[in-house]
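Methods: example folding runs. The two proteins below were folded one after another, and each record is reproduced exactly as written to the output file, sequence line first and structure-token line second.
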Amino acid sequence: MTASKTASKTQTADCRLYLITPPALPDLDGFAGQLEAALAAGDVAALQIRLKDAPEAEIARAVKALSPVAHARDVAVILNDRPDLARALGCDGVHVGRSDPSVAEARKLMGPNAMIGATCHDSRHLGMEAAEAGADYVAFGAFFPTATKETDHRPEPEILTIWQETMQTPCVAIGGITPENCRGLVAAGADFLAVSAGVWSRPGGPAEAVRAFAAEIAQGLGER
């Protein structure tokens, strides 16, 4: 995932990390340092800035502080929920949920080169609708319990395998993912692992977490 568009799955099979910020960043400068350490430790495709219920000024400060860190490593910056704000702040893309503007509305606001992702819970039907509307990726989950957000859906890894067999649009696995439980999702076919607490709350720190994920991703890809 780059600042252009997500690569087609006709290229070599891979699985990459997609980092999501904690829901609040009271120490923005400190978090920027954590982000820099995480990105230096291994391959990361994207950073989603997800500050639920934060005022626009706070989101703008986060984008201004974190985008240079991400872009220095060729990591795309995606804003959660708000295509209008994502465009105004110069983000590379936006992720829309079921209660947010539609994929089509986000595309109209952000233009043809923006990355648009969509939450699809445990539904291949929602995934196909999003893909047909022009989403660059679809996100399934939560695969595991998570304290980051309330979840009502718990898909099985098989949804990733079926998606890989039938669709070209990349799929993201999300929800409670850690180095200890991610290998099966990679083996099942996830193109990206969306991770928040699994990196930022890792006892050994974000850099150690990214290295641990890289090792497990390599094992999972070997099992495909």
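Second run, written to the same file directly after the first:
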Amino acid sequence: MTNDTAVDDIKMRYVMLIYIIIIVIMGITIISVIGITGYILIKDIGIESTQQSMVPDGLIAIGSAAVGALAGLLVPSPRNS
């Protein structure tokens, strides 16, 4: 194995490691948003039915962005045939 292929192999491993780290972070973000939203909704069960539950818009935006990023990373890119 030449030095160039060894360097390319190490670079590819780092790229895969970064990819896996990003996937894990996005997954944790999605689970956290679901948990926090569930907590807010369960906490608000006791309020009167005339009031609406107040889930912050920023929390919904973070969850939506994380789902979109995760989908974009996991969907295979189109290849030219």
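Comment on the second run: The CA atoms of residues 75 and 81 lie 18 Å apart.
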